Amino acid sequence: MTDRPEASDIWMGPLAPLSDGGLTAPRIGIAGISIESSTFSPHVSGDEAFTIRTGDELIGYYPFLDAGRELRDAARWVPIFHGRSLPGGAVAPETYRRMKDAIVTGIRDAIRDGGAFDGFFFDIHGAMSVIGMQDAEGDLARAVRAELGSDTLITTSMDLHGNVSEVLRDEVDLLTCYRMAPHEDWMNTKERAVWNLLDRLRGPHGADPVLRRPYKAWVPVPVLLPGEKTSTRLEPARGIYAELPGIESLDGVVDASVWIGYAWADEPRCQAYVVVTGDDRALITAESERIARMFWDAREDFVFVAETATLEGALEKALAPDAAHPYLISDSGDNPTAGGAGDVTWTLAELLARPELTDGTRTTLVASIFDAEAVAAAETAGVGATVTLDAGARVDHGPRGPVRITGQVFSITEGDPDAGTQAVIAVGGLHAIITSRRKPFHHLDDFRMLGLDPEAADIVVVKIGYLEPELYDLAADWTLALTPGGVDQDLLRLGHSHLQPGVYPFDTTGTPALTAVVGRRGEERTAC
């Protein structure tokens, strides 16, 4: 949650010169809530899950708004409130209400003290589920719009695993989302959203609340797939996303985006979407429908980003005499960055039962489960002590309860901003990582800080789906293990019951029209 790329990593070019009629120094607010929430995970994301940023800390979160940069100087920025969490379970209603109230109150106070906003950066994920709600981002967008009024131009940046419901579509004016999975362009996308907003406000229609709004061509695509089948490293996702910059460069187009949708929530909005924005209605209609058709026609061609297997099958490959090392295994069913609880013990228990992993002849790193009580017990015993701990399954009991670990306390590491205190328990050559709080392991330094060397390990098991860049580079070979958990890759066994009719692969009988709904706020929308 502390990740912040360097300003030099941002991609957008300079703004166009200020046009006659454009706004010289528009007043722009910033607020939002960002979390990806699995409704199939028993984890509940409460207040403790969110990092809250306001004021200068919120401005400082965005490298493209650093002092002296063009986008910072192009507007009067009013940072209001932003809550960001690791993916997890659905958000507690009271937590959502507190954050929503802080945003609404902050907008109201800012307007009272400084006047209306010309623009607003609505920074969200798009896959937030709140217990008892069906479209949390739509609800938040409606509340934000009600406070801002109809004249404010709203831009939103989203994860490509978000969902663009009709409510969200109608309340915001500019939408864009990531074009890379893994999400190496996450901050670049936020900059693009802000750049598009400023470009419209500074353009020839900047002072006209209606004309500065582009048209939006919105096409829902009834396909819902896990991110691990839609990585932009592979076709067909790579080819579909490669079309977007070319569309965006056409005269009359502002932005072109494709949302994969979020597979581990059971809500009617969960499916894929194509949105193209611009001033040329005919062009954006044609391009949005073309890309939607590409996506639909390719629906059966999406494959997992790596070879898949059961955990047993993955271990057979990793332990084979000719296996390349380090061999990485994705424990995908409990991936905390997709919304898994992060404390399912099934995989660790299976690994501990394999003598060839615990006899000291090879090194295996297992990341991770969280259990504050188990970490505290290891800390009390001290480094070097032999302990017997029952750990994990406090939140998601899964197919097993807590796992019993008997081994030596290899290391105790304090102070991680996400994990809190971390303990490593060595059972022969198997090193089980236990954290006080949920944490994804995406970087080599996540292991090194614990005294572990992932580059020298024989096997590295990580609760993840597709490998993040550093792990991808680390892996001499890898397998995506289809393990149980709240973000099970086998969607058909999860039990969705609230999706729209006809969503593939849950329903394989229909053929959608894939017709764009086109319009802009203040005008009637039409299906073209």
Describe this structure in words.
The protein folds into two domains: 24-303 and 514-527, no CATH class; 308-488, no CATH class. With 528 residues, it is α/β, with parallel strands linked by helices. The protein has helices at 55-59, 70-73, 93-114, 136-148, 166-171, 186-202, 237-248, 281-297, 311-318, 346-352, 355-358, 372-381, 444-448, 469-474, and strands at 27-34, 37-38, 50-53, 76-85, 88-89, 119-123, 153-158, 174-177, 215-221, 253-259, 272-278, 308-309, 327-331, 364-370, 386-391, 403-416, 420-427, 430-435, 459-462, 477-481, 517-519, 526-527. The mean pLDDT is 95. A hairpin with a 6-residue loop joins strand 21 (517-519) and strand 22. The strands form four sheets. The chain has a nine-stranded mixed β-sheet with strand order 12-20-13-19-14-18-17-16-15. The chain has a six-stranded mixed β-sheet with strand order 3-4-1-6-7-8, with helices on both faces. The two termini are 42 Å apart. It contains 14 helices and 22 strands.
Mean pLDDT: 95
Q: Which percent band covers the strand fraction?
A: 15-25%
Q: What is the number of E strands? A: 22
Q: Helical content, roughly?
A: 25-40%
- Compute the separation of the termini in Å: 42 Å
Largest sheet: 9 strands, mixed
General shape: globular
Low-pLDDT residue intervals, each spanning 5 or more residues: none
Q: Give the radius of gyration.
A: 24 Å
- The total of helices stands at 14
Structural domain tally: 2
Strand order of the largest sheet: 12-20-13-19-14-18-17-16-15
- Classify the secondary structure makeup into a structural class: alpha/beta
